[in-house]
Amino acid sequence: MGGMKFAHLGIVALALAWLPLAARAGAPAVDAATKASCGISSSGALKCPRFGFAYKVPFGWVDRTADLGEPSQPESGQDAASPPGQAKVPGGRASSAAAETLLAVFERPPGAPGDTINSAVVIAAEPAANYPQVKTAADYFGAINEVAEHDGFTAVEGPYAFPVGEKQLVRGDFSKQRGKLTMWQSTLVAIEKGYIVSFTFIGGSQDENDELISNLSFRSTAPSSHGVKK
Question: pLDDT tens track of the chain, all 230 residues?
């Protein structure tokens, strides 16, 4: 991954230990097929036939997907670059061609007072062509680790193969101290139809992240290129 440039490092994202590198300036337009095939249903689930997955959004959570391109405000006691429950992740970068944040939801509104981690889920997709050195989902963690380290996160485990139903993805886990609290981040990655799709989960514990991940489902499909052994 040496020599790869990550313009997203200077960009404030809107949710999770690095939202798909979502930009304040707003992500560039994505192809119509991607937009048309991914959206929140009346049941409150994000359905994305193009990439073959669905995510059940926890009841009562705040959907900020449409606001991802706007400047975010730090929560009480948090630094402006990384508000709690907020973060950066490769994907949705202002400098990326056709990057798209498919979902950005928070347990409570960003900026709302609270004495717990503002849990969040961010799902993003960007063309694999943006990362010519990335051949497998595991390779993408070179970029993820770089962003996580820049934001003060420490890798706990990964990348490692992680099944969601019959689908094999690659997972990495990170943590970061927020005063007396610990922010846990888990990111899953798959390469689908020429896109890198990342699923980032932020919570106050690994158990909470596992519970959030359990809302993700894939339709039966051939294994994607994950590049690590179980």
Answer: 433 333 222 222 333 433 443 332 233 444 555 555 788 888 889 999 999 999 999 999 999 988 764 443 444 333 333 333 334 444 434 344 567 889 999 999 877 878 899 999 999 999 999 899 999 999 999 999 998 888 899 999 989 999 999 999 999 999 999 889 999 999 999 999 999 999 999 999 999 999 999 999 998 655 455 555 44
Helical spans, DSSP H, in 26-159: 32-37, 141-150
Say how far apart CA 49 and CA 197 lie, in whole Å: 13
Q: Which contacts of 156-159 are long-range, i.e. CB under 8 A and separated by 24 or more positions? A: 159/189, 159/228
What residues contact 98, with CB distance under 8 A and at least 6 apart?
28, 29, 30, 31, 34, 126, 127
Q: Which domains does the chain have, with CATH numbers?
A: 7-218 (3.40.1000.10)
Q: How many CA atoms lie within 13 A of 139 on its CB side?
A: 14
Biggest CA-to-CA distance, the chain: 45
* Strand, coil or helix: 146: helix
Backbone angles phi, psi at 23, to 5 degrees: -110, 150
Residue 164's CB is within 10 A of a number of other CB atoms, namely 17
Name the pTM for this structure. Answer: 0.75
DSSP-assigned letters across all residues of 188-228: EEEEETTEEEEEEEEESSHHHHHHHHTTEEE-S--------
Q: Is 157 helix (H, G, I), strand (E, B) or coil?
A: strand
